[in-house]
Amino acid sequence: MRYPNIRSFPVLLFASFCMSCMPGAYGVEQNERPNVVLILADDLGYTDISPFGSEIDTPNIAKLAAQGLSFTNYHTAGSCAPARAMLLTGVDSHRNGVPNIPEALPEELLAYEHYQGVLNKNVVTLASLLQANGYHTYMTGKWHLGHTPDLLPSARGFERTIAMADTGADNWEQRTYLPIYEQANWYADGAAHTLPDDFYSSEYFIDKTIEFIASNREDGQPFFAYIPFQAVHMPVQAPREFSDKYAGVYDEGWTVMREKRRIAAEQAGVIPQGAEAVVTPGTLIWDTLSEEQKRHHARRMEVYAGMVDAMDMHIGRLMNYLEEIGEYDNTIFVFTSDNGAEGSSIIAPDGGSILRDWFDIVGYNSEYDTLGERNSWNAIGPSNATIAASPLAYYKFHANEGGLRVPLVMSGPGIAKTGEMTDEFVFVTDITPTLLGLIGLESHAGNWQGRRVEPVVGTDFSAFLAGRAAFVHASSEPIGYELGGNSALFKGDYKIVINRTQQNETAWHLFNIRIDPGETNDLAQDNPGLLQDMLADYEDYVVENNVLPMPAGYNRTRTIFGDSLRNLRQQ
């Protein structure tokens, strides 16, 4: 069970009173309420932005960090769709219909209504709440929460939309990126959409966001813009001028780069002084690779860095536009990632791929000279992903910190702390209620338009942002999590975790993640009482949220690809 922040209760009570007796939030006229820009990167690792210790140039995100508060202990889901569903509703993934991406759900679980992998009708989105309170609502980017007309963002509270409905797509043109799709499914305001010939995903999303904002600029209503980028989801692609900025940066390999990131993160205050790191199992030994393999791996990271850099540049274009029209200072910015870095082994160390037969059919390649450009298919792979996640263990899909802990930067009205970092624990379901709190709007409290809906379970930490509360979650509050057989529970400074899928673990681990974010010191043997208490909390979470066990032998990769690769090789 989730409990409200006791210290912020008087503030929330006062806010409710104000809303009931004054025009607009906290007595502020409607046209003075802050705008909200929610920026979601895709598969961005913990230290992939410069304020968190990255070598990648992200001056615009750094500007937001300097003007606001950065959370170094923010946690999300280990995969995209569950994270997006929780982010936009404040409801646990097992109650909002998205306990896993639909592509990875086994047939045995699809028989259950709450295991469909699409956002169900029993939840209300942040966009719906804001739209009902006089906000224009815009969305440009990856949706991945359903692609039937009643499930698209245009039916879930967004007034204007450009939406890619799949798990991913090419960044240069309208083509699918995996053989599991027949086409790339793009929609504009709920109708099938054709991309322009000069399309590049990050540029296009900001172009359309600016266009949408400009179209209603004169009416005085505030806006909510949700921008879920495709960067840096595979295929990792970027204009060459961005990738070439990082030529040679990764030539020393992941062992050196991981340590550089760890030191930089420590110096920036992102991790505690002396925090240790472990090498994620399965990471290749750099010095055993051939020179050609090293060259290819390094270039893959150069393109990755270029894609992050390009995303940041386009974010800067939106920031500049808002400054030009006088709305920047009245805008709440949130920047984060849906999950940790992608560590799939689709591209081999020599540049080959398990998708090579499909590449030959559709015209993709992973050649060094054009890597990241049009017709190129690129992914950084598990060893490079340890750079992006450094100093954390593992990456996307895993319940370790490298899969769940990502950067969170917030700035704008209501955020009193500026240029600071906090290691206060925050969870993805906390974002929706906090944004409502910053604006001065109440949640639906489980009732929406005359019907019962799932209540928001996240915590409103707007009082913490304003400096009126000392903490977000009480140290006694358990927060559970499960995705595809990988589970965790957070309580105070501690976390228990088990990865039944991919790692095939049979025993739970216990870590103090505030002082040991790298999960290097398992406390399970030394603190059996705490472990048992947290295991009991996790079992309560399972029962309360109807978390179902994964079928025996579940394999995520095999479930996603199904018979597609086998069929290709038989052609």
| CATH homologous superfamily caption | Alkaline Phosphatase, subunit A
β-strand amount: 5-15%
Distance between the termini: 53 Å
Question: Can you count the helices?
Answer: 17
- Oligomeric form of this entry? single chain
What key phrases describe this protein's structure?
571 residues; alpha/beta; Alkaline Phosphatase, subunit A; ten-stranded mixed beta sheet; 30% helix; 14% strand; globular
Commentary on this structure:
By secondary structure, the chain is of the alpha/beta class. It starts with 8 loop residues before the first helix and ends with a helix. The chain has helices at residues 9-21, 59-66, 80-89, 107-110, 126-131, 201-215, 240-243, 254-268, 291-324, 356-362, 381-389, 401-404, 431-439, 462-465, 528-545, 556-561, 564-570, and strands at residues 35-41, 68-71, 74-75, 136-142, 160-164, 186-188, 191-192, 223-228, 331-337, 408-411, 420-422, 426-427, 447-448, 451-452, 478-483, 486-491, 494-499, 509-512. The chain is globular and about 60 Å long. The strands form 4 sheets. A 10-stranded mixed sheet has the order 7-6-5-4-8-1-9-10-2-11. The protein has a 4-stranded antiparallel sheet with strand order 15-16-17-18, covered by helices on one side. Helix 8 packs parallel to helix 11 (381-389). Mean pLDDT is 93; it is low at 1-30. It has 17 helices and 18 strands. The chain has a single domain, classed as Alkaline Phosphatase, subunit A. A hairpin with a 2-residue loop joins strand 6 and strand 7.
